[in-house]
C-alpha cells in the first residue's frame, strides 16, 4: 500500500496536499480505495460551496457500498477533477495522482489541527 510522505491524512481516509499557489488538493487514500473496492461513481456537487472541516462534500459509490467524503479543512471547493467525473476508476488506479477529487481554497490559511502525518495514518490503518 502507498503512503506518500508529503501528504497529510484524516481519520476518515482522505488526504490533502497544499499546492505552491495556496490551494489544496483532496482525495481518498490508497487504503480507502482498497477497502471500498471498485469505484463506479462519484457524487460531488459542492463546487462553489464553502464547506467546514469535517463536513460531507460528496460521496463515493463502489460496487458494494456508498461512502461519504469529509472535508479535511475549512474551504471553498473550487473544482472537481474532470477526469474522475468521467472515469471514477482513476481513484482506484491512481488515488494520489490522476485520481484526486477536488481542489479547495483554504479559508484563511490551513488549519492542520487534527490532520495526521504519514506515520500517524499508518498507525491508524495498522500498517
Automatic annotation (TrEMBL):
Cofactor: (R)-lipoate
Matching Pfam families: GCV_H (PF01597)
SUPFAM superfamilies, per the entry: Single hybrid motif
Keyword Cell cycle: no
Cofactor: binding comment: Binds 1 lipoyl cofactor covalently.
Keywords of this entry: Lipoyl
Residues that bear N6-lipoyllysine: 64
PROSITE patterns: BIOTINYL_LIPOYL (PS50968), LIPOYL (PS00189)
Ranges of residues in domain Lipoyl-binding: 23-105
Family: Belongs to the GcvH family.
Subunit and interaction comment: The glycine cleavage system is composed of four proteins: P, T, L and H.
Function: The glycine cleavage system catalyzes the degradation of glycine. The H protein shuttles the methylamine group of glycine from the P protein to the T protein.
Name used for this protein in its record: Glycine cleavage system H protein
Organism of origin: Nibrella saemangeumensis
Amino acid at each position: 500500500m502507498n503512503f506518500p510522505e508529503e501528504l497529510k491524512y484524516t481519520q476518515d481516509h482522505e488526504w490533502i496536499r497544499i499546492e505552491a499557489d495556496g490551494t489544496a488538493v483532496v482525495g481518498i487514500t490508497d487504503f480507502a480505495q482498497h477497502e471500498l473496492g471498485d469505484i463506479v461513481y462519484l457524487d460531488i456537487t459542492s463546487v462553489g460551496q464553502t464547506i467546514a472541516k469535517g463536513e460531507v462534500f460528496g460521496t463515493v459509490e463502489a460496487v458494494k457500498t456508498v461512502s461519504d467524503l469529509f472535508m479535511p479543512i475549512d474551504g471553498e471547493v473550487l473544482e472537481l477533477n474532470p477526469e474522475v467525473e468521467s472515469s471514477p476508476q482513476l481513484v482506484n488506479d491512481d488515488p494520489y495522482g490522476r485520481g484526486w477529487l477536488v481542489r479547495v481554497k483554504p479559508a484563511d490559511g490551513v488549519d492542520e489541527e487534527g490532520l495526521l502525518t504519514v506515520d500517524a495514518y499508518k498507525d491508524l490503518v495498522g500498517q
